# Entry
Amino acid sequence: MPRSTVIKLHEDYTKLEKLELKINISDMQIIRREIYELIEYERQFNREKNARYRLMERVMASCLKTIDLWEERVSTMFTIDTIGVKTEEMKEDLSKRVTKRLGLEGDNEGLRGEIAALRENLDKKRAENNSKDTRLRSLRTQLKDETELHKSLTHKVKTAQSHSTILKSALESSFAELEDIVSDNANSFQVDDVFEE
# Structure
């Protein structure tokens, strides 16, 4: 029999426990071989009808069954240990992913805040641009009206200048004619002055 058949089920084996388990497994394999050899040895003598042989065969079969159960228990224990190790690795991976996700969600929240601020700024700039565009349209309309008014006034001024030039030349010619008439009739004006005295 192995040195220690008590096997603790846990995930973290010490080196001593691992070595002990390996020794126990190899001991069980040796015992199994010896039992098979003993059964074959007894069969050679054809004592199969003997009660002693049948009792020995039953005891040996029970020993083999016990060894099978022990090996199954060790195999199950290794499977449980492997699952435990994988579970721990998965828990670590999950915690890393959760931490990363929470960090990314925090970053996303910050980015959402920045996006909201940028949208608000964009809306303000659009409203400001629309206001400036409306003002620009009104200034262009006003400029167009002022230009039309300026053209109209310039035309009127030119017309008035041409009329004043005509009027001036007409007045000059009228005054010249008047002076000529006055100078021609100056004698008659003097006579009238004599009568008045």
User: Anything to note?
Assistant: The CA atoms of residues 33 and 64 lie 10 Å apart. The first helix runs from residue 15 to 43. Residues 1-5 have pLDDT under 50 and may be disordered.
